[in-house]
């Protein structure tokens, strides 16, 4: 979605009632972020809405991007928020071989998650990727970390549930996500 660099469109202030709605939606979608919501979306600070190409709305605090939303889809955190609060989101891990493809904007394919370096909920050695032993359903937002790397490299919406991924071991895992180095990552809001 953000493969190419782009410039920010019109910037407008978000009304306080809409700000409360965004805040409530973020807490509903990411309950692990609730203890830190005052740091992420302070009540007394102005939230701005920036229009970007492909009907995407980007919520910012000054020049700091916080969340983005494509039309009426799920509200998704910017990777800067994910890097600050990685434990607050559902996570999966790709193997080393998939890193270069993800970083070049390719669709994340299931074999990168089901191979020996990948981790999905329910795997024997899932660790922090276990999600309480619960599978993650298709349509849910998930953070993708890379084997051997400290920070997340991609965030997006699952096209296939993790249970189905383990059974099929092929197909599209995530497409149109936000990854490190894409146009949204490089966007200058100052």
TrEMBL record:
<dbReference type="GO" id="GO:0001731">
    <property type="term" value="P:formation of translation preinitiation complex"/>
</dbReference>
<comment type="similarity">
    <text>Belongs to the TMA20 family.</text>
</comment>
<dbReference type="GO" id="GO:0003723">
    <property type="term" value="F:RNA binding"/>
</dbReference>
<dbReference type="Pfam" id="PF01472">
    <property type="entry name" value="PUA"/>
</dbReference>
<dbReference type="InterPro" id="IPR015947">
    <property type="entry name" value="PUA-like_sf"/>
</dbReference>
<feature type="domain" description="PUA">
    <location>
        <begin position="90"/>
        <end position="181"/>
    </location>
</feature>
<dbReference type="InterPro" id="IPR004521">
    <property type="entry name" value="Uncharacterised_CHP00451"/>
</dbReference>
<dbReference type="InterPro" id="IPR041366">
    <property type="entry name" value="Pre-PUA"/>
</dbReference>
<comment type="function">
    <text>Involved in translation.</text>
</comment>
<dbReference type="InterPro" id="IPR002478">
    <property type="entry name" value="PUA"/>
</dbReference>
<dbReference type="GO" id="GO:0005737">
    <property type="term" value="C:cytoplasm"/>
</dbReference>
<dbReference type="Pfam" id="PF17832">
    <property type="entry name" value="Pre-PUA"/>
</dbReference>
<keyword id="KW-0963">Cytoplasm</keyword>
<dbReference type="InterPro" id="IPR016437">
    <property type="entry name" value="MCT-1/Tma20"/>
</dbReference>
<protein>
    <recommendedName>
        <fullName>Translation machinery-associated protein 20</fullName>
    </recommendedName>
</protein>
């Amino acid at each position: 979605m953000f493969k190419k660099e782009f410039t920010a469109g019109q910037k407008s202030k978000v009304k306080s009632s809409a700000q409360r709605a965004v805040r409530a939606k973020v807490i509903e979608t990411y309950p692990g972020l609730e203890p830190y919501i005052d740091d992420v979306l302070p009540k007394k600070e102005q939230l701005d809405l920036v229009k970007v190409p492909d009907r995407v709305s980007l919520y910012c605090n000054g020049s700091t991007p916080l969340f983005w939303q494509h039309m009426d889809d799920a509200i998704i955190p910017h990777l800067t928020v994910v890097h600050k609060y990685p434990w607050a989101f559902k996570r999966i891990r790709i193997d080393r071989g998939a890193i270069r493809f993800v970083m070049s904007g390719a669709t994340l394919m299931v074999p990168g998650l089901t191979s020996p370096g990948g981790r999905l909920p329910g795997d024997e050695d899932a660790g922090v990727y276990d999600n309480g032993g619960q599978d993650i359903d298709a349509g849910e937002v998930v953070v993708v970390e890379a084997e051997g790397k400290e920070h997340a490299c991609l965030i997006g919406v699952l096209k296939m549930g993790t249970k189905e991924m383990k059974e099929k071991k092929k197909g599209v895992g995530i497409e149109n996500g936000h990854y490190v180095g894409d146009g949204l990552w490089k966007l200058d809001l100052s």
